[in-house]
């Protein structure tokens, strides 16, 4: 019997497994459970002596069942969502290839290159399960389950309406693997590049006491997008909060560009700038505070003060 319910030729998902219970996994798991799905999760931190209890308690608060193993999490799932780190995405796909069975759907939402998605698809589909790539096109926290996703793969056009039925914002754009992730990677050159440019520009401008004039000039050149309001705070906050993860993604962008025969000058420079801020924050014991309003000026001043000492 197939692991996915099919009614009148349409997929539907009632049992979901989340592999990875970090920020994105926690949000999706919480919202899918609230939508009436039976949700299980497995995270490698469940095996950590220091983190296991807290991670399992977090899952239980979200009404998500913490599974003992990867196999336990996916055993009865109709939909398996991989929401792990860039470095772990291939290992998860390999585990799925050894564990899943025909009828199950593996949805890969990780921000990796088209080539890596294609490799993961081959690994997963060795089991007889179906692989669908998803490119998550905005930060997950603000929109939560409604975050826009572009899907690709031979089952993408079947899976999109089933995800929509759960309250997700999914749109199929290709039957081949790699197109959706290429959209994500190419977009990231601009989005994350802009974050890195804002960080570098404002660091220098603050040093010279010229930030107000620089922001006014940017606002004059690009009116209406918020340079005179909160845009710089937002762009730099994304690096301060998620810079390491975003740097990893930009290295996947670099791989994407190299696969296209292009140099990755901007992508690698963006990754270096993102990493450098996190390195400086960690070196000085400065942490991003999710529960407090973010000020790029306060962060830059704190780093400058620490350096002066």
CATH-assigned fold name of the largest domain: Rossmann fold
Please summarize the sheet with the most strands: 8 strands, mixed
Instruction: Spell the H/E element sequence.
Output: EEEHEHEHEHEHEHEHEHHHHH
The N- to C-terminal Cα distance equals: 67 Å
Which structural class matches the secondary elements?
alpha/beta
CATH class of the largest domain: Alpha Beta
**What CATH architecture of the largest domain would you give?**
3-Layer(aba) Sandwich
Helical content band: 40-55%
User: Which superfamily, in CATH terms, is the homologous superfamily of the largest domain?
Assistant: NAD(P)-binding Rossmann-like Domain
Widest β-sheet, arrangement of strands: 5-4-3-6-7-8-9-10
Query: What is the global morphology?
Result: globular
In a nutshell, what does this entry contain?
The protein is an alpha/beta fold.
Tags for this model:
309 residues; alpha/beta; Rossmann fold; N-(1-d-carboxylethyl)-l-norvaline Dehydrogenase, domain 2; 2 domains; eight-stranded mixed sheet; two-stranded antiparallel sheet; globular; disordered N terminus
